[in-house]
Design goal:
The protein has about 180 residues and is an all-alpha fold. It folds into two domains: about 10-85, no CATH class; about 90-180, no CATH class. It is about 65% helix and about 0% strand. The longest helix is centred in the C-terminal third of the chain and has 19 residues, at about 165-180.
Amino acid sequence: MNTLFGFVILAGVIQSISGDTCTGCAGTYTLDKSAASTKAAQCTALRKYAECLMGSKGTGCSTSDSTSINTQFSATGDITKDAATANCVLDSICTTCQVNFQKKIQARSASTRDTQKCVEDFEYVNCVDTKPSSQTACDGTTSQFRMFNVALSVARLDCVYAGTSAVKSSVVIMAAALFVSYLKF
């Protein structure tokens, strides 16, 4: 019976994110966090918040805003502090790959060149590819393999100036080149 009660509470914490802005994500997290009565529920709310920030843009996402990824994943940010409090471990696919890539996306402007987007995308592909297969994304469930495929899909979409077959071969070549560039001889 206690187990069922725990699942009911957990299900209440897990709800769809209504805002796609950093401010909207923060508001939803505040509600979810206050409803979480266990460390597991707090961790679920935290992962949901981190995942929401990975797709956020607009209001509250400027690097100086308190709800931005830069602030939330800093040493004094809510995500960093609350993860420690809830004993919630966020893998480096989340804290390094996803966070750094989302920061770059949020920094893009209308004048950002397609080649720059492609470079950033393939850096993301390489980052995910070099992480252990046991790691998960910010949501805590998406596997490294799935994240690698998501990163490749993003790269294919952003590299619009190349044909489909060119993108496929470019993905392999650039990912290999990035991987080799990280090796120390």
